[in-house]
Design a protein that fits this description.
Layout: E1 4-8, H1 12-23, E2 28-32, H2 38-47, H3 50-53, E3 59-62, E4 73-76, H4 92-109, E5 114-117, H5 122-133, E6 140-142, H6 145-160, E7 167-168, E8 171-172, E9 180-181, E10 187-188, E11 191-192, H7 199-210, H8 212-220, H9 227-241, E12 246-255, E13 261-272, E14 275-279, H10 286-306
The structure holds nicotinamide-adenine-dinucleotide.
């Protein structure tokens, strides 16, 4: 039997996630939105691409959660995107209400699902989803690190004029201006990047990575990034459905790991059929640990504002 994915929010990120899932034949997809007609129209349009693209997956759009029942994965993209000049944190209260209502409905209809949260501010919204759903922590994760790492890898590959596939690395911390790229653990075909790029160039890449979301927002003027974000979500879903045990940086609920207690923060995790199968704890220098703690402090402030 085919897997089933519910995508809440049929906007830029949600619809592109649905399309990528269909293109890869990974699952049947239910698109949910509060807008009447939009999820239905986008779902039907994607379904009608099936004969051309050669997929048989079923895609529907709806305003009702009954049709999402028994989903294996629920992707939460509903909410308001950032506008130019607006920080992720400005979105906090508006999106908190959206996540609360949508996740409680989705969790009720798919009690065994794995939740992947995308709505910003990411770490605080993942924490909201954990609380509202009552799901165990290994079934609630946030997408940010895969995207931030993809941006980081893109810029390194560009600077060295090598394949992006040669560049491996990850970023830690909250999804925001305090994210922590770790050059010590970044390699290019196995060679430490610190051997290949001078410090100032690497610093410039790290700064650009931190501002990666804002760079796109400023270019688009209306809306925020969605091609790379949707690709990141689909990489996570693929790791889960194919039980790949793939190590990916995701927002995970920490209970003591990295010295952080009761907070969602981006860390490398092993993703497989059960969701988060392991949180990988790597050795950090005092400086990296301090940057991670600072990043976690930012998340803590947000969750205390919304009380989750
Ligand atoms: N974590 C990340 O790395 C990352 C990356 C990109 C975008 N985002 C975030 O993802 C979210 C979506 O971005 P987008 O570009 O798709 O925005 P968008 O405006 O294109 O789409 C959002 C959709 O959510 C719908 N919606 C609003 N309230 C709803 C509700 N209660 N129930 C169901 N649907 C509802 C809207 O009608 C709209 O169609 C934003 O919060 C954005 O900041 C996060």
């Amino acid at each position: 039997m085919r897997k089933k994915v519910t995508v809440i929010g049929s906007g830029n990120v949600g619809a592109t996630v649905a399309q990528r899932l269909a293109d890869r034949q990974l699952a049947d997809v239910v698109l949910v939105d509060i807008l009447e007609g939009v999820p239905q129209g986008k779902g039907l349009d994607m379904l009608e691409a099936g004969p051309i693209e050669g997929y048989d997956v079923r895609i529907i759009g709806t305003n009702r959660y009954e049709e999402t029942a028994s989903s294996n994965v629920v992707v939460m993209t509903a909410g308001f995107p950032r506008k130019p000049g607006m920080s992720r944190d400005d979105l906090l209260k508006a999106n908190h209400d959206v996540v609360k209502s949508a996740i409680s409905e989705a969790a009720r209809h798919s009690p065994q699902a794995i939740l992947i949260v995308v709505t910003n501010p990411l770490d605080a919204m993942a924490q909201t989803a954990l609380r509202v759903s009552g799901f165990p922590k290994h079934r609630v994760l946030g997408m940010a690190g895969v995207l931030d790492t993809a941006r980081y890898r893109t810029f390194i590959a560009e600077a060295l004029n090598v394949s992006v596939q040669n560049v491996q690395g990850f970023v830690l911390g909250g999804h925001g201006d305090t994210m922590v790229p770790v050059p010590r653990y970044t390699t290019v075909a196995g060679i430490p990047v610190t051997e290949l790029l001078p410090k100032d160039k690497l610093e410039a890449i790290i700064t650009r990575t931190r501002n990666g979301g804002a760079e796109i927002v400023n270019l688009l003027k209306a809306g925020s990034a969605y091609y790379a974000p949707s690709a990141a979500v689909v990489e996570m879903i693929e790791a889960i459905f194919q039980d790949r045990k793939k190590i990916l940086p995701c927002a995970a609920y920490l209970e003591g790991e990295y010295g952080i207690q009761g907070l969602f923060v981006g860390v490398p995790v092993k993703l497989g059929a059960r969701g988060i199968e392991e949180i990988i704890e790597i050795k950090l220098t005092a400086e990296e640990q301090a940057a991670l703690r600072k990043s976690a402090e930012g998340v803590k402030q947000l969750v205390s504002v919304i009380g989750v």
